[in-house]
Amino acid sequence: MLKLSAFINYLSPTTKYAYYALECIEALEWNSKGGSVGGGGGMRTVVGNINANVNTDINSSQTTTETSGSSNDGDNDNNKRDNKINLIGHSMGAGVSVVLVAAFPELFESVTLLEGAGPLARNANDCARHVRAACQRRLKSNKTLFSDGTSSANGDGTNNTSLTTARAKVYRNLDAAIEARLDTTRRMPGDQYLSVEAARDMVIRATVEATVAASGNSSSDDIPVTFRHDPRLQWPSLQYYTREQVEAFYNDVFKSNIPVMLLTAEDGWPVDSWIQSKVHDILKPSIIKVLRGSHHFHADPDTVGDVASEIVKFLKV
């Protein structure tokens, strides 16, 4: 029986969040025998643009690609399997998943990539341009978030100032925040869409009541809310992986013999041709399928059933 699973969603930058995910695995003792990921408990240490359609065959609505290779390399020890993790990553979380599995293959039983084929790849010659753009964006953001000049942002994007001093946008009520979430989806690349039901679930989870002066006759429908995430999570990275590095991650995951399933949506996030080719030539997922839906096909009521069904079948293999 497959006992453990982890879900990574919307994480950036990839390397830092791979570490944070590993901290969670350690804290929850999901690693083998509850030992330390850093080398204890019988563990060995391994050194070792989401913007596309992932495969040239992906034009059909239900394309499947099979590749040769056996998972677990003949390991039939059920106890050993029960101690391993089935990792599911959506969007940028798929990039984090690829990095994590490449670095710590002994932890994982399988990896499912939803609407994301791996970490973002950038041209090495553009590294200075990315640093400049990231610095400019962060400086501009700090002037908005910390207009009193108290910002003491560290080089890694962390800040010693309490987030309660940050000037997060306040929405007049939950419905206004839901509409803002829907509008964000409409402005995403490609023909993106999101159901009101899925947006509502996301916003309820992602907001808190805003601390503002309350009017004497306000109803529960007029309670102002604000998104509770740290706005700095939306800053661009100071550096990105090069294409050669992404190829290396793909190669390490493939050599690990850990089964990989890639599910993309018909109306999902556009993926460039370079990622498509490297996914097929290097990563070689054992299953690639295109399902109906948009980038959040795993959350929309009309499409979540198909996604869940594919994942369950994959995990039962």
What does this structure look like?
There is one protein chain. The protein has 317 residues and is of the alpha/beta class. The protein folds into 3 domains: 4-120 and 240-316, Rossmann fold, CATH 3.40.50; 124-162 and 232-238, no CATH class; 167-229, no CATH class. Helix content is 35%, strand content 14%. It has a 5-stranded parallel sheet with strand order 1-2-3-8-9, sandwiched between helices. It has a two-stranded parallel ribbon with strand order 4-7. Strand 8, helix 8 and strand 9 form a beta-alpha-beta unit. Helix 3 (92-103) packs across helix 7 (243-255) and helix 5 crosses helix 6. The termini are close together.
Instruction: Give the biggest sheet.
Output: 5 strands, parallel
- Indicate the structural class: alpha/beta
Task: Write out the strand line-up for the largest beta sheet, numbering strands in chain order.
Answer: 1-2-3-8-9
Indicate the proportion of strand residues.
5-15%
Question: What proportion of the residues is helical, as a percent range?
Answer: 25-40%
Oligomer type: single chain
Task: Label the CATH architecture of the largest domain.
Answer: 3-Layer(aba) Sandwich
Measure the end-to-end span.
11 Å
Secondary structure tally: strands:
9
Low-pLDDT segments: 8-12, 40-75, 152-165
- Would you tell me which CATH topology of the largest domain applies? Rossmann fold
Helix count equals 9
* Average predicted confidence as pLDDT: 78
How much is the radius of gyration in Å? 21 Å
Q: At the first level of CATH, what is the class of the largest domain?
A: Alpha Beta
State the shape.
Answer: globular
